[in-house]
Amino acid sequence: MTEQPQGVVPGLAARALIIPIRFYRAFISPMLGPRCRFYPSCSAYGLEAIAVHGALRGTWLTVRRIGRCHPFHPGGIDPVPPRPVRSHETQGR
């Protein structure tokens, strides 16, 4: 999933972080070829993490994910964790 969840509009900081990831995906990644050991790829994970969690937490999750991308990690399926539900968001339902 590389698109934003429905109804979520990223803030200015999140949009500023999404631009270099999209640049990487369009121009740099095709030259490097498929090297991903995770699904979704780190760039797709970064886009989704920033869209779901915002600039600060999304960047932290992306940096952690990239830090796990090395020859000694087996890789595999690693989805973005869901946004935690806060108690004030569930009231009134």
TrEMBL record:
SMART domains: Haemolytic. It comes from the Bacteria. This is Putative membrane protein insertion efficiency factor. The keyword Cell membrane applies. The gene is yidD. It comes from Nonomuraea cypriaca. Belongs to the UPF0161 family. Its main location: membrane. InterPro entries: Membr_insert_effic_factor_YidD. It is found in: Cell membrane. Keywords: Cell membrane, Membrane. One of its GO terms (cellular component) is plasma membrane. Could be involved in insertion of integral membrane proteins into the membrane. It is a peripheral membrane protein. Residues 74-93 are annotated as: Disordered.
